[in-house]
Amino acid sequence: MPKAKANRGGLKMISCPRCGKRFFSETNVLQHMNQPTGTCRFASWHEECSRSFSQARCPPSDNSVPCSSINRPPHFPSADSNAYQDWDLNPPSPEVHETEDFTMDAPEEVIPLVPGKFVEVYEGSSEVFPGGKSFMDTFHEDQYSGERRSNLYFPFASQQEWQFASWLLRSRLSLTAIDSLLALDIGIPLSFRTGKQLRARAEVLPSGPAWLCEEMEPESPTKHPVRLFYRQPLECLQSLLSHPLLAPHISFVPRKVWTSAARVCRIYDEWLSGDRAWEIQDALPRGATVLGVVLSSDKTNISVMTGNRVAHPVLISLANIDASIRSKTSLHGYLLLALLPIPKFVHKTTRVRGLLQDRLIHQALNRVLTPLKTAATVGIMMSDPAGNLRYCYTPLASWIADTPEECLIAATSPKASPITTATSKNFGDPFRHPPRTSSITLSAIQRACAEQDPFDYKNFIKVIRALRLNGVVEPIWKGWPLSEPSDFITPEPLHHFHRFSWDHDTRWCILATGAAEFDYRFSLLQTLVGYRAFEDGVSKLKQVTGRDHRAVQRYIVGVIAGSVPRRFLTAIRSLMDFRYLAQAPMFTDDSLTELASALQDFYDNKDAITAAGARKDSWEIPKLELLQSIVPSIRLSGAVMQWSADPTEHAHVQEIKVPARAGNNRDYYNQIARHLDRAEKCLRFDIATYMESKRGEEDLRVDEIEGNETEQDKEHEPDEEEFPTDHLAATRSPINYFTIADALVRGCIPNAPRPYRTFSTATTAFHLSTKPSLRLSVDEAAAVFNLPDLRAAISEYLHRLESGMPHRVSGVRSQQDHQLPFDRLQIWCKVRVQQMRYHSRQTPDTPQTLRAFHPSTVNPHGLYDAAIVNADPDSDWPQRGLEGHSVVQLRMIFRPLHSELLAAYVQRFDVVAQQGNTNNRNAGTGMYLVRRAVRSNGSRIGDVLPITLIRSPAHLIPHFGKEAHSRLTSQTSYELSSDFWLNKYWSKEFYYALSSSSR
């Protein structure tokens, strides 16, 4: 008979150092902190959000000061101060709410604090006025707010009933399935018994922007009536501004960031740090607020396998929201604004049908976006996250789209650039053509209309073909102030970088190397945990996704090295460098110069691609021409990664595909609108009821403390059920081993097993499993892991520890006697390694797994990953790159029994010197060539090091030469090879670290 579980109803004695939640044991605490999606993370966010609402921040009076010095008390003008005289308003007596943003005459904003940066803010921008409404104000003004004073969850009977109803409303269950479920005796008293009753109750929940439907009159007959589903764009923007989860991450004031007080080198990251936001603010009245509108449009498939059903959604967001937050689909930073019609015209000519469809799209967009044009012209009062009013203008900051959609928006033909005046014959030019301004395009449209009647479709098409137009007469951006197509059509990394690489770079390399050799080399690669392997090669892949595009980019330079001419390799490498550099989250003037130089290197060597027979003489590649606009776009609008279509493509799944497939495959747009309306009501109601219940609990707790203030009351911590569910969490950041290691060192978990399995240095954190993989004697471990000098290496390691000598992977054995004070070892086959991000030293990156698996039937030669280790006490990773560091292969991770030591046996690689290159990088690949370090007798040089000397995982690619050896396999290629490329492209963080030493 199995043992009964121990009674766990006793008092919880151990508290989490991050959120205060109490547990029964230290093991439970560690497991709790290791959960990346647990409620512990929401507690940290909730405290941050509360502080942001309760404290206002302002910069010092000097306009260019170190960020570290911006820490002064808040200042707000009174209701009758001069801050309101410019607008001729008579504000009511209540004071302005506390807010996060600033002007020089009104509440002021603190720019994110980053040491060493100097910020110049725009004076007199973004004034605030009283009288607005916050998210909770709107909730309390609902028509059923009176009923919610006695029952917060009205129209549902209780919190439990609401949770069950919310799950049903969010699910994909049909009404019939819901009726069947509710007919069961589930033991829960419910106030509704059918799906229709449930949805009727959902209709009275507080609503967000309402959906509208209008019949449209196209220029030419269609097979079916044309209907436009949309929401008011200003209501959508107000919903984003009022969203409590987004509130701490919204800024309003343009800024210029410098690397020093001398104002010599600019820094560009968010949209507000670019030149365009500053220039727009210059054109607006004093005190006005710039709301940068972000739009995205693209067709997406609805039906699965068959049906040929397509939707054309338009999403809307705000450039004022931090890019890192706006890109997270779970935070709903993009709202579905409209579902554009996709009619079937009855006209017989295909080209005419295409022209009519383009015109109808612009006609629909004009109908939807006219309020934004008006607000961009005369301004509009809108409420900010704190419930204050701001006088807002809505210029178009960015329109995120793929290349064909960009041409549609710009009203140009596919044979012309949507951003510059270049045509298809100029797409390969090594310089940027003049920008295509709105006046240029509108003049061309006027000329076409003057030459031919726009409704004489066949003849009009002949005219617009010569003028490189698509036939649209009234483009959406016409009459939109401060919005030039060459400015708001921003680079889009998903298509301009990754799809371009797959369509062209990969194809060129396959033609130059040979498909069989190319696939064979890819099949020999050993990838790290979590990264895609290509056992069957690349050339025959079908249904390739953006993730596959990125995976091929990680290895392609090292794979083709040796099999293609040097200048061909240089051209491919230069394009890859350009893409990796352009994906950085922030830029300086110096890094932009480096970015432009990488693109120029490609143009200097692209003739080698033609010479190798990989491409014809023509370079009519639209995406290639668009690369010339990336550096100017960064200066204008900030980092290009914030304009990636990745989050919008993911949003299409939640906003379009899931709702469409939850219906009955009829009248898709109508069902999508209804589904989203219910889901948004549920989300808003969840947030509002949570915030209201927490406020009530805090008021009650204050009363209890005032009545009976004891230490027990002060130390009370909420239980897990007091926190909301995961769909309310602000963000799901990767697990932070640095925080856990710090908590262990500070003794927050006094009975945790020693040595601590989670520990960190200044640059790197480590995590080992509680239980080791193996327990062997020293000699047994040497035999299992094929390390004949293991005992001698451990003896040398202990000698260095006792004498205080630095640790080197030299292979020197100064000790003749290899007797050890222990004989048994605990051995781990993998370790988790985490670093801080290169561009954000306070943000932990996703942990990586390093493996050291001994030979087995599955891996006859074992499985050993590479790493970067510290070879110089004064080295600085990642700022100095490989300088002061060594490349090693991790062969064993162990701990002597009854010892605090955690060590690793590693084998060294030496960097091969490159003639004519002082930094020892290969001129073709731009990577280090490393070679196994061996003794004169051919044995490999290895040593034991403290595991804390590991700085980063690394990836190696065998140097295959002209042709890879035919007897190599994926299991033997790394053990039988001696020369390797240190692959800097396997991750962006590793790329930036290795590239830093060459800057």
List the SSEs and their pairings.
Elements lengths: L13 E2 L6 E2 L2 H8 L5 H16 L10 E2 L51 E4 L6 E2 L5 H6 L18 H12 L4 H8 L12 H9 L7 E6 L9 E6 L1 H10 L12 E4 L7 E3 L6 H9 L5 E2 L2 E5 L2 E2 L8 E9 L4 H4 L8 E6 L9 H29 L1 E4 L5 E5 L2 E5 L2 H8 L27 H14 L5 H11 L17 H4 L4 H21 L1 H9 L22 H15 L5 H17 L4 E2 H17 L1 H5 L10 H5 L3 H8 L8 H16 L6 H40 L3 H4 L22 H9 L12 E3 L3 E4 L6 E4 H7 L5 H14 L20 E5 L1 E6 L12 E6 L9 E2 L1 E5 L14 E12 L6 E9 L16 E5 L9 E5 L3 E5 L1 E3 L20 E4 L5 H9 L3
Parallel strand pairs: 10-16, 11-17
Antiparallel strand pairs: 1-2, 3-4, 4-8, 5-16, 6-7, 7-14, 8-9, 9-18, 11-13, 12-13, 13-14, 15-16, 19-20, 20-23, 21-22, 22-27, 23-24, 24-25, 26-27, 26-31, 27-28, 28-29, 28-30, 29-33, 32-33
Helix pairs in contact: 12-13, 15-16, 15-17, 18-19, 23-24
